[in-house]
Design goal:
The protein is of the alpha/beta class and about 150 residues long. The protein has a single domain, classed as HUPs (Rossmann fold), CATH 3.40.50.620. Helices cover about 50% and strands about 20% of the residues. It has six helices and five strands, in the order E-H-E-H-H-E-H-E-H-H-E. It has a five-stranded parallel beta sheet, with helices on both faces. Helix 1 (about 15-30) packs across helix 3 and helix 4 crosses helix 6 (about 130-135). The longest helix is centred in the middle third of the chain and has 26 residues, at about 60-85.
């Protein structure tokens, strides 16, 4: 059965839909939810913040990304609170799909719930989406992708 749900979220509309699904499943099965947001700072972005005097600072970009991550959790967790579902939050750093898979395996999650970007099959083939990558990287857990 389902005892532990990993909810991967980016705060988007589809991620919030996924949160509602995770909340309902958690209520139904008496499961706990781990809300995961992955901060991915591409190298190109990390050097792009220009400070007075023309200096760049990776720490500034990192702090901005952390603030955005906290904002994602701020819009996500009230949906779980309203449903009366026990949850914990987790912010991780790294490549998004790889980090979701790692956290799912390390935490012992029984189910991964996440939103879809809604890419067409052709676009997903060319670009790949996080949900597509997670779906193909996880071999021992069900993944619910919400559109």
């Amino acid at each position: 059965m389902i005892h532990h749900i990993l909810l991967a979220t980016d705060g988007s509309d589809t991620a919030l839909k996924a949160t509602r699904w995770a909340a309902e499943l958690a209520k139904t099965y008496g499961a706990n939810v781990t809300v995961l947001h992955v901060v991915h700072i591409p190298v190109a972005l990390a050097g792009s913040t220009v400070l007075p005097g023309g200096a760049t600072d990776v720490a500034v970009v990192t702090r901005l990304m952390e603030q955005a991550a906290e904002g994602v959790l701020t819009v996500t967790t009230p949906l779980l609170e309203d449903a009366g579902v026990p949850y914990e939050t987790c912010i991780e750093y790294g490549h998004t799909a790889e980090t979701i898979v790692r956290v799912a395996n390390q935490s012992g999650a029984d189910l991964i719930v996440m939103g879809s970007r809604g890419l067409t099959d052709a676009s997903a083939l060319l670009l790949g989406s996080v949900s597509h990558k997670v779906l193909h990287a996880i071999h021992d857990k069900p993944v619910l992708i919400v559109r």
